[in-house]
Amino acid sequence: MTAELAPRGPPPAAIALLLEKIGLVHANGHRALHQVSLSCRQGERLAVIGPSGAGKTTLLRVIASALRPTEGRIETLGTNPWQLSARSLRRHRARIGTVHQSPPIPPRLRVVTAVLAGRLGNWSTARALGSLLYPSDIAGARDALTRLDLADRLFDRCDRLSGGQLQRVGIARILYQRPDLTLADEPVSALDPTLADSAVGSLVEQSESTGATLVASLHAVDLALKWFPRIVGMRSGAVVFDEPATAVSRDMLEDLYAIEGSSLPVQGRVAQASGSAGAPVPDANDERTGRGCRGDILPLLSGCR
């Protein structure tokens, strides 16, 4: 008698990010990261939250291979970047996209060229130089900008944009790049609540449609809880908690932000810990995976009942 085989589910996703006891000490002796351990599967989305100076930006720079850790082990997209040759490291970095809080965009550059720069790492030298003279994919750049309500600025110079518009150009560049790993460092800090929510939603939508991993550093607690199924809390260069969004409690958040006073940061405003004030937050009945906030998690944020 032949035994029936149990149906096999889909294979587990590959590990996109692995940090084991990562530490970083700057030349002046300041310790920026302490024993940070994280792992992320391909396609996973997580938000890193915490008070100013927690080490969030430093962590993302380490993941992006912009900073070399002084301690521990790191793998991104299945590779230890610091064991690669210079040429291989450039190719590896081309698979990683970073949205900066202040995008490093030359002010005289046209918006269309700034967006197309997202794929420079994948283009030949001839195409990259040619695109500076005449943009090689105007339709692609326009499509990315349209998703951020910025298509009308396609041919403007970047020095004619506001800080918030520049942040959206930086996001559009990543949407056009379509990297395997997206890192977003306070990507919507200069945007109003409506635009910020839409911009983070665009990053999440791309992660879902392409299977890319998305790691975002966010100061606004409400955005993190709405859009990310997994929340990592950091303080003083160390991980304080690493939990599903549905497991993050009021006490955990109050403790995390205690050094900033009796308030929690939300997009556009500050929510008082007492629950007496705050900004609108996601609908408690939003049933999209990882995008809802429950009334029993955040009664301190008004609107989340």
What does this entry look like structurally?
The chain is α/β, with parallel strands linked by helices and 305 residues long. It has a domain of 205 residues: Rossmann fold. The strands form three sheets. Strands 5-6-7-3-8-9 form a six-stranded mixed sheet, sandwiched between helices. The chain has a three-stranded antiparallel sheet with strand order 2-1-4, with helices on one face. Strands 10-11 form a two-stranded antiparallel sheet.
How would you briefly describe this protein structure?
The protein has 305 residues and is an alpha/beta fold.
The count of strands amounts to 11
Tell me the distance between the termini: 57 Å
State the fourth-level CATH superfamily of the domain at 44-71 and 85-261.
Answer: P-loop containing nucleotide triphosphate hydrolases
Residue ranges: pLDDT <50 for 5 or more in a row? 270-300
Q: Find the CATH topology of the domain at 44-71 and 85-261.
A: Rossmann fold
Proportion of residues in extended strands: 15-25%
- The number of helical runs is 9
The gross shape turns out to be globular
- Return Rg in Å: 20 Å
Into which percent range does the helicity of residues fall? 25-40%
Main beta sheet: 6 strands, mixed
- The CATH class label of the domain at 44-71 and 85-261 is Alpha Beta
Class per helix and strand makeup:
alpha/beta
CATH architecture of the domain at 44-71 and 85-261: 3-Layer(aba) Sandwich
Mean pLDDT: 86
Strand order of the largest sheet: 5-6-7-3-8-9
Topology pattern, helix = H, strand = E: EEEHEHEHHHHEHEHEEHEE
